[in-house]
Amino acid sequence: MNIFVYVEHIDGAVTGTSQEAIAAAKRDLGGTVTALAFGSAANDAAAGAFAAGADSAIVCTDASLDSGLVEASGPLVTSLVQSKSPDALIAGASVAGRDLTSWVAFDLDAGLISDVTAMSADGGRITATHPVYAGKLLSEASIPAGVQIISTRSRAFEPLEANAGASGAIESVDAAASGLSTEVQSMAAASAGVSLNDAKVIVSGGRGVGGPEGYDPLKELCSTMGAALGASRAAVDAGWIAYDHQVGQTGKTVSPDLYIACGISGAIQHQAGMNTSKNVVAINKDGEAPIFKLARYGVVGDLFEIVPALNEEMKKRLG
Amino acid sequence: MKVLACIKQTPATEAVYSVDNGAVSWDVPGGGKPNVINPWDEYAVEEAVRLKENHGASEVGVLTIGSDAVEESIRTAIAMGCTAATRVDSAAVDGSGAAGTARVLAAAIKAEGAEVVLMGKQAIDGDTGTTPVMTARALGWTPLTFVSAIKEVGGGNITVERKLEAGTQTVTAKLPVVISVVSEINEPRYPSFMGIRKAKKAAINVVDAGSLGVEGAFGAGSAKVDWASITAPETKALETEMISGGSPAEIAAILADKLIADQII
Ligand SMILES: Cc1cc2nc3c(=O)[nH]c(=O)nc-3n(C[C@H](O)[C@H](O)[C@H](O)COP(=O)(O)OP(=O)(O)OC[C@H]3O[C@@H](n4cnc5c(N)ncnc54)[C@H](O)[C@@H]3O)c2cc1C
Ligand SMILES: Nc1ncnc2c1ncn2[C@@H]1O[C@H](COP(=O)(O)O)[C@@H](O)[C@H]1O
After folding, report:
1. A138–B228 C-beta distance less than 8 A
2. CA distance B242 to B254
3. In terms of Cα–Cα distance, which of A267, A256, A281 is closest to A206?
4. Which of A17, A115, A139 to mutate to test the interface with B (most CBs of B within 10 A)?
5. What CA–CA distance (Å, rounded) separates A135 from A273?
């Protein structure tokens, strides 16, 4: 099966979500993977894609594609799919990946399955699992005819072991995005720290932290563990922490290896964003809090005592 | 400038689901409302109303494809400040898939003559988030997704901030545009008493999709994706191990040991 994977990158560094998409295409679907990489640093991105498991690459190094705007990448991917007829087009379900897959699927009148968490293939047709109703139900979908377009949920697929020496054939295409109606004015980098999307460990705090400064011990644990900082909506609504950190149905959906919930009761809307975490540790004063139902390990206690103690222990072990 | 907010009615966030032979039904424990405006669409409605209040939009419509059961959500949008409402009856649209829905929305948007269309980033039933870009394509308009702030509207342009994984991008686009919003954009208002009274009496323009001159396929049989099965995930029997006894330091040490022994970290 020939699979195109759209590779997102930051100045040539392939994003984790794109590495996972390549792994899904290669390992879970057994495909031959062609990476699509665009922009001035596309050749570096292609090298990163080979290291992540791609077999070949199609690059377009025109600077008009640097913005990553779907208006620029959409028509190019559409024409590449049209001219080369892969069996599938896959992208990570990032903002750009969602935009791109929607654009191309509409323009080619092709089937699109978004934000999938598992996939398999049989005779060139893919069956994909897509969580619906905030992850409370699972749907299994397939696209009976034509190119199969799919976006993969962040952290749902393990990346392949990086192979820095890998290489592959690169085809360069000449194309420029012109006549765009959108212009990028500026880009403010996300605040420092590990992003919730790629985090292996998330330390998350809710109303129990009691105020903005209540996040300080959690931040220390984050830096010790290389973790990202999460929050419940109650804490975000109280103005203690920026919305960027909100986990839940109206926040981010995360699937870390470890989610440490501190002072979070575990409301159903919070669970919707974190119930695919591989392991949950709950620290809560109230032994009856629903969050314990999701937890592998639970501690009934004051987070202001437990979290600093855990930080000291982790420093000993990880330091 | 006319603004339109597109809303979908979805199950309440507290809903508890059951699946019987592929048919999904839900209930809200404690007898709450089983259906609400899709949470993200509330932000779209609020932003549409603010475009009128702060940026001189002349009219703020609300548009939905749905059965008459969704009129409650439409009235909520009117109570929040929308000045006109259109419901495209879903009978002929059901089974469309994402592209078909987008084509019908596009035809309805054209009929309304809007210049700025606001949608939610995704609907919490299907959880796909494909409609905004597809609708923009069907219209030949510019999509602006994951918008967290509208900075400026005027002179045929709009400047917005978008929330991307890598940071906040500020872009200027030529109108017309289809925008999808994230919840950072605003704090939706509670409808006022006056608003609710007005909404009760407001006329809802009901349209048959067949009369819209939709370009391309929609309705039963037009979907490209086969949603063969829908199931409730097996709840993994999870044994929660409570760690107790001793000082916080002792508890932390036990927890750290276990996390390492399990190779979780
Ligand atoms: C439409 C809609 C969408 C929503 N979307 C989201 C969403 O995306 N994300 C989200 O999180 N919520 C969301 N909610 C809100 C959700 O229903 C809950 O209100 C919210 O998650 C509660 O946050 P919390 O657990 O921090 O607060 P609480 O429920 O108040 O829980 C605080 C917990 O902290 C514990 N605690 C207090 N002090 C300490 C201490 N010193 N040490 C240890 N434990 C302590 C308490 O025992 C309690 O269990 C949404 C709600 C609606 C209606
Ligand atoms: N039936 C519908 N009627 C009106 N708007 C819709 C409909 N379906 C989706 N939308 C809009 O498209 C957004 C994204 O939906 P979806 O692509 O289904 O996740 C929603 O938040 C709505 O604003």
Report:
1. no
2. 11
3. A267
4. A139
5. 8
Query: For residue B171, which residues of chain A lie inside 8 Å, CB to CB?
Result: 69, 182-185
Q: What is the mean pLDDT of residues A75-99?
A: 98
Determine if ligand 2 sits within 6 Å of the CB of residue B218.
no
Burial track B216-251 (b if 16+ CB lie within 10 A, e otherwise): eebbeebbbbbbeebeeeeeeeeeeeebeeeebeeb
Element (DSSP H or E) covering residue A284: strand A280-284
Determine the Cα angle at B265 with ends A9 and B247, to 5°: 135
- At which residue do the structure tokens 């709950």 appear? A282
- Ligand 1 pocket test, candidate residues A133, A252, A265, most atoms within 8 A of CB: A265
Residue A230: phi, psi to the nearest 5?
-115, 175
**Nearest ligand to residue A253 Cα:** 1
ipTM of the complex: 0.94
Q: Where are the alpha helices (DSSP H) in chain B?
A: 39-55, 71-80, 97-112, 131-139, 193-201, 248-261
Retrieve residue B22's tokens. Answer: 């592929």
In angstroms, rounded to a whole number, what is the distance separating the alpha carbons of residues A80 and A244?
Answer: 35
| Cβ separation A308–B127 shorter than 8 A | no
Contact B143, A70 (CB under 8 A): yes
What average pLDDT score do residues A188-217 get?
92
Cα B87 to the center of its chain, rounded Å: 16
Chain B residues closer than 8 Å to A314 by CB: 256
Please tell me if the CB atom of residue B40 comes closer than 6 angstroms to any atom of ligand 2: yes
Residue B217 has a pLDDT of: 96
* Calpha distance A88→A80 (Å, rounded): 12
Nearest bound ligand to the CA of residue A218: 1
d(CA A149, CA A3): 10
Question: Angle, nearest 10°, between helix axes A303-318 and A216-225?
Answer: 20
| B37 CB within 6 A, ligand 2 | no
Nearest to A253 by CA among B165, B27, B249: B165
In residues, how long is chain A?
Answer: 319
Residue nearest to atom 47 of ligand 1 (CA): A286
Q: How high is the pLDDT of residue B195?
A: 95
Q: Which domains does chain A have, with CATH numbers?
A: 2-172 (3.40.50.620), 201-318 (3.40.50.1220)
CA of A267 to the centre of ligand 1 (A): 6
- Superfamily name with CATH number, domain B2-222: HUPs (3.40.50.620)
pLDDT band at B187 (very low <50, low <70, confident <90, very high): very high
Q: Where are the domains of chain B?
A: 2-222
Whole-angstrom Cα distance, residue B261 to residue B257? 6
The CB of B61 under 6 Å from ligand 2? The reply is no
